[in-house]
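Entry:
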Amino acid sequence: MDPIIIIVGIVCLAAGVAVALAVSRRSDSARVQAANEEIEKAKRTAEQVSRDAERAAESAKKEAILEAKEEILQLKQASEAEEKQRKTELRNLENRVMQREESLDRRSESLDKRDHQLSSLQGQLDRRANDLDALYDKQTSELERISALTSEDARQELLDRVKKDVVKEEAQILRDSEARVRSESDKMAREIVSTAIQRCAADQANEITVTSVHIPSDDLKGRIIGREGRNIRTFEQVSGVSLVIDDTPETVVLSSFDPVRRETARVALENLIADGRIHPARIEEMYKKAESLVKERVKEAGEQAAYDCGIHDLAPELVNTLGALKYRTSFGQNVLQHSQEVAELCGLMASELGCDVPTAVRAGLLHDIGKAIDHNVEGPHAVIGADLARRNGERPDIVHAIEAHHADVEPDTVLDVIVQAADAISAARPGSRRESAESYIKRLEKLEEISNAHEGVERTYAMQAGRELHVMVEPEKISDAEATVLAHDIAKQIEDEMEYPGQVRVVVIRESRAVDVAK
């Protein structure tokens, strides 16, 4: 029995005894009756307390059992979770083991293949060794034959054979290299250049420098010359420009190597003619005004060109030098317009190639800036322009692109090549430049001279305005392989020794004929 019930019973019994002792002091009958009632009441109370204690004990027992069951359930769930985790770890371990086994199988197969390849290579090496032995025996016998010759004859025969073999190999290498390079690069280059040209909406840049001034009548020539030539001497001393007055009707010619100075003299002379007062003091005054006006025009032209190209941080000296290109021409092409066109082409090609477009545009605009001052500074205009840009804080990559656009230094970046290509496109497109008949003839003669200097060349024809060179060779002296090498050598010599717009295509023609006569 539960100890709690026993304790409750003892307590009730003690209470009953106490009640009985108290009742025994009362009257006998009343006392007995009251005692009995008290006893009964105490018994009922004890029974009730006992039942309550039993219920409480039963409830506590049930709660303990429930708690025990819950604890057992939790332990069971934890055990199942732990077992599930262990099973998962075992599966993962099994998968890794299987993967390791598969990897080892693949490695084993790979090793077997390599063993097979090594065996095959060993067989090839053995065959090569046999071939080398046979070749060695053949060369030995050949050397034995040659040994009967003189040292000079043997040397010449060996050189002829080596040269023949080298020419064949060189021709084959050239063919393979050209085919590979053309297949990979020609298509991309054509796409980039054609896209750039199509997107470039440049004006026609052909322009003739103004070197003559129209006068209303020939009577003004005497006034321009002045008494004893004082006016013309003053004009030439102030302007630094030669004033040529001849029998050409109503025309006075200005001559100077400096295009800005020549333009200043032209403006001053036109203002003098319009004013009508021509004397030394007035000439000096008009020239100073014209000089200020031309300087302002030069600055505005430079600023406008930079603005059109989206460049806003050029140094003032570069802006003024760039504006001076407005009065500079090259082969009849206005250099400032040419520079703007090159800048636009550079930007388009740079965007196609994924390069920095603003840098390419800047390099293209400044590439010919040296032409504005090349009459005052010694050296190629590319080097002069690069030095000027370097002094004015331009970035090294832009300076190098300016310096390399005519290969005065070796181009070594994509930007250098972009500027070179854009400059060539602008200069070589139809209508961009003029060439004098004398220089044109000299260029054609130089092309034919370079070609005719090679051994085995029979005749040479410069065609397509010097853009194509047809070389006729003697078939008994030049083989097919040597013809390929000859075309490459002539093209390389033309690149090294000549300057020309665009490109020159060299075509070597080897024709053999068999002729007989029927009688």
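The CA atoms of residues 342 and 399 lie 16 Å apart.
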